[in-house]
Amino acid sequence: MDWVSWFDAPEYGFARQVLQRGVAALFFVAFLSSLNQFPALLGERGLLPVPDYLEGFSARRRPTLFRWRYSDRLLRSVCGTGLAISVLLVAGIPQLGPPWVPLIAFLALWLLYMSIVNVGQTFYGFGWEMLLLEAGFTVAFLGSDQTEPPRTILILLAWLVFRLEFGAGMIKIRGGREWRDLTALYFHHETQPMPGPLSRQAHLLPKPFHRLEVLGNHFAQLVVPFFLFAPQPVASTAAGIIIFTQLWLVASGNFAWLNWMAIVLAFAAVSDPVAHAMLPFLPLDGDPGGDVRGNPPYWLAITLVATFLLVALSYWPLRNLLSKGQLMNASFNRWQLVNTYGAFGTVTKHRVEIVVEGTLDEEPGDTAEWREYGFKGKPGDVRRLPRQWAPYHLRLDWLMWFLPLRTVHEEWFYAFLTKLLEADQRTLRLLRTDPFDGGPPRWVRASSYLYRFATRAEFQETGERWVRMPLYEAIPPRSLRGSRGRRR
């Protein structure tokens, strides 16, 4: 029947390829990040051990495979399985079979990673975790090369991009004054959680350019998302603008897979003719499936059930978007589907960094030789060029950025200092440099410093990319024999 054929979107074959393989690739990064960092941060002997957390855990509120038992070996098995499935999906192997094969593969990724997130505590409290989960669940219903891309699922993916972009835009407009007076980018490149190799150059651009950046951001987030639902080629143009702005964010900072996910999801609005016009080497059908003749009735029924579910769950985030008390990065159901997103409602004006040091001296006085631990992503050595880490997620480095904004007296941070005193090898592998070459210091302390990017003249004179000034001792010297001094 003609009305049934509307649900098929054969002109979005290339979009499906990008969506399925791109989301699977980001799942691979997420599982790899967990495999490398989870045991040290949250494992059996981690900073916030999951077995302790599970003692007061509500499985009804947070579904996870670890509700019955956690072990580091089981965690590695979950990550290994997720990595294997992700590789298969990136290679397009499940997509060669019936549509229920990639469906099961993506739902497996969703359940496996949700199991990790739901016991990840503060180390997994980032908006891009739920974004990855929602994207994985929705992309699961895009079918395989034997079927046409379902139009309703593509629309729901465009709706996800809309919530991601428009939600972030509204958070900014309702947030700090700096977004309304166009001065936010005077500070953001310098004070963002994890600067990249080009962040200093971006910060040193003229202030009129920064004002144009903010105007462009408002246009891309508050106006452009509405055109994702327009006819072609307008929708593809809107997607192109979003992709371009997200690439600028990729170049100027490190936000794990947030920006890459936005780029991948934006392809839900890019049709094959537009993609072919931009990249002529792409086949017009965009899909290697060849002779596809519509979707079987059972698959149409499955996609419609998923559509009705996600539309029904959209009530709460839609209401949140229209609310003056808009929530940022919140989920309204235990399965973390159809969430609300947003970031940087206010911009930090000054960069304060917590520097961790240790000494081998018997007494941690003024004459002690203090050596600084180096982190992989956060500023430390003033001469070091910041590295590009995204889409990989350095969880410890990110949480270090929050300490001076909230409080240094976090349970996990005191556990981290204790692990340094014990020279715990798992913890030390999270760092870039260990000044004691694997040995334990006698004392450790945490000091706060004010950081700013060096001007071009300062860099030419000193070779230092950062200028830093000591502020105060955040945590006095501590040893395994007891701490010295009082908390401030």
TrEMBL record:
InterPro entries: LMF, LMF1/2_C, LMF1/2_N
Entry keyword Transmembrane: yes
Membrane topology term: Multi-pass membrane protein
Domain Lipase maturation factor 1/2 N-terminal: 124-274
Keywords in alphabetical order: Endoplasmic reticulum, Membrane, Transmembrane, Transmembrane helix
Sequence ranges assigned to domain Lipase maturation factor 1/2 C-terminal in this UniProt record: 337-475
Spans traversing the lipid bilayer: 74-93, 99-116, 123-141, 234-251, 258-278, 298-318
Cell compartments where the protein resides: Endoplasmic reticulum membrane
Chief location category: endoplasmic reticulum
Biological process (GO), any one: protein maturation
PANTHER family: LIPASE MATURATION FACTOR (PTHR14463), LIPASE MATURATION FACTOR 1 (PTHR14463:SF10)
The family this protein is said to belong to: Belongs to the lipase maturation factor family.
Name the UniProt record assigns to this protein: Lipase maturation factor family protein
Organism: Pseudarthrobacter psychrotolerans
